[in-house]
Structure formats: structure tokens, C-alpha cells
Amino acid sequence: MKSIVALADCNSFYASCERAMRPDLDGHPIVVLSNNDTMVVAASAEAKAMGIDLGVPLFKIQPLIKKHGIAVFSSNYTLYADLSERVMETMARFVMHYEVYSIDEAFLSLSEFADLDLTHYGKTIREAVKREVGIPVSVGIAGTKTLSKVATKVAKKLTDGVYDIRGNEKAILEKFPVEDVWGIGWQYTKLLHRWGVSTALDFTRLPERWVQKHMTVDGLRTQMELKGIPCLPLQEIRPTRKQMVVSRGFGKVVEVREELEEALCDYATLAAWRLRREGLAAKSISIFIMTSPFRPGPQYANIATARFPEATNSTVAFIRAIREILPRIYRSGYAYRKAGVILPELCNEKLIQGNLFVSFLERKEQRLLQAIDKINDRWGREVVHFGATGLAQPWAMRRERLSPCFTTNWGELPVAYVS
């Protein structure tokens, strides 16, 4: 069976999520900010047309915001994750095999539908996602995953948002910048430019031996894929996480140990919830604290680790460990700007080797956590939370323009009025 792959890529995903919940913003410029509302991480097509680039600091675009009434949002990761799941579930109905590549991208196998008009089929998928979830999607169709990435970039420039590159690869690759090819980073781009390679087509004409020597086997796979030879199969089962990191910059500097402890316990609570959701457990936990290297004053950073008697995903165990190891690294007199929790050794929770010395009480904790998860999944993540995470949370990440969690919190459901 000949390989046919489509890449479905959500357009300006974060901005599109905000617009999906706010139809009054249709056609209106939107930007979404990074953690602590410092810089732009997503922008709608209207905002990009005004010259707003990703990564630009918020203060630099304040004149444009005031002049054009640009809608500005803090990152609402809860909303984006939920809408991403809905997008993927919708697209999965149309194919037998697919790979969720990122929060806003998925590879779809269309090999089984080779006899259909695949451009029309791509439009059908696109229209279903827009109708059912409210998110615009561009679809690129090709013989390989790398070529489908190229096709999707072309599709984003078309009004119907779908492009089948098959039969027209040479003409497209001849004009496609080599630096925009999936898998070719900045260092390889500089190397290729020195050798006179500026387009994707130029890259396909390089000797294979040279590519493998200078760009390893990964570079050779990229070249083969651009030639239409599939080298990257769909990964329908996501690789199991090897580690997990939850870290945040503080909304203000933190100097006292109690506030650091609250922040770390909050991050650990989120990490533990993610582990339980994915069926994983941690053999150890590490925490780090650090000052900002960009601020004047004394600098300090350190990390501490605790091992568990047996792998766990218990929030209680994580909090207990943090309270034990934080005093080892905390030093007074420093203005801390960031902290985080690292779970470096993860395993399947069903494969945990039992320990005779783990108490019956800790087994009961799991039933408690399951009950808390059910409540929070229904009513919002922090409806029931541990006191160790604090109440006022003055250290919390600054998100002054946060939209409601419309789809995951009953208390924040949008209200419709009928006159």
C-alpha cells in the first residue's frame, strides 16, 4: 500500500482557542502571552499582519494594542489542552491510524483512502473540526511526513486550507527555504548555506554520503523523505515519558522559605495529577530554586533530591518529600525568581515493585486522591486542594488577562441570554 500522509495543523492554536470561546472576536486581532504575561507566544493572522512577531515583549506592542484594540490574553493551558483533545478526537473519526504530534498537530494516515478525492476529504476533516470544536485547521497531504509538513505550510496560504503536494513536489521544493524544512535546525542551516544550499530542492540533490557524514542518519532520513521515500512511520502509541518537569517563574520575587514551599507543593500537586492521569509513578523527586541571572544582586541556585521507598504518584508523598529536602538548599537573603519540581525516573504504575515497609495508610491515600481527582475533574482543578499549596499565593505566576476555563469548569461555563 502506497504511503499517503496528511498533517493537520491548527492555525494560531492558542489564539484560535480564545476566539472559539469568544465569537465576538471573529476577525479581531488577538495575542496570547507567555508565563507571567511577559511576551507574545501566539498571534492571530490579523495581529501578525500588523507586524507583531512571536517573542516580542508586551511593553513594545502597547501602542499597537491601544491603537487597534487588540485582544490580549494570558496563556490558559487548561482550556488549550481540553480543546486540543477535542480536535484530535474529531479528526480520529475520519482515519484508521493517526499520530498526535503536538498539542496542535496530528499526522493522519490516508493510505486506506487512496481512491478518494483526498483534497475533498481533507476539506471534510477541516470543516468537521471547525464546526464541532471551533478551531481552524490547515491540512497538507503528501507521500511522507516531512513532505506533509511542507504541504501544510502551503495550505496555510490558501483560502481553503488544504493542499495535496503529490505530483507537484519539485515545483514547491524549488521555492521552499531549506531553513523551513522540518528537522533542519539553525546549525545545519548555516552549514548548508555555506555549501550553497538555499532551498529544499537543493538539499535533495546533495550526495547521500555527504548528508549522512555531516548531518547524521537523521539528516539522511529528512533528505529521503523529501525525495518521497517514507522513513518516519506513524507513532500511534506515544512513547512513555521518561521524566516530568513542572516549573514556573514567580509573579514577584520570593524571599521567605514558606512561600517557596507553597509554590513547590503547588507544582508537585500538578505533577502528581499528571502522573495519575497517564498511569505513571515516580521513583524520586527533585526540587530546584534559583534567583534571576538578569537582576542585580547576589545570585544563588541549588537542587535537592529525595527517593521514595517505592515508586509513587501520591501528592501527599511529594509534599512530604518537599518539606524534608527544601531546608537543605534554602538560603535566606536571596530574591528567588523561579522554582520547579523534577521527576527524573518514571515508570508504569502497574509495574511498581511492592515494599513491605510501605504503610497501609499510604495505600488509603490513593483512594483519597482518586476521590479528589474526580471532584476536580468535574468542577475545576483546584476546587479541592492541599493546604500546603497556600491560599493567597502571592508568588503565583502573573496571569492578569486569563480567560475562563469554559470547557472544564462548571463554574465558568459561558452563559447565553435569549431576549
UniProtKB/TrEMBL annotation:
Record-annotated UmuC domain positions: 5-185
Q: What class of enzyme is it?
A: transferase
DNA repair keyword on record? yes
May I ask which residue range the UniProt record assigns to the signal sequence? none
Record keywords, A-Z: DNA damage, DNA repair, Nucleotidyltransferase, SOS mutagenesis, SOS response, Transferase
Alphabetical list of SUPFAM superfamilies matching this protein: DNA/RNA polymerases
A GO cellular component annotation here is:
cytosol
UniProt KW RNA-binding keyword: no
Q: Which Pfam families match?
A: DUF4113, IMS, IMS_C
Enzyme Commission number(s) from the entry = 2.7.7.7
GO MF terms, alphabetically ordered: damaged DNA binding; DNA-directed DNA polymerase activity
An example GO BP is: SOS response
The family note in this entry says: Belongs to the DNA polymerase type-Y family.
Could you identify this protein by its name?
DNA polymerase IV
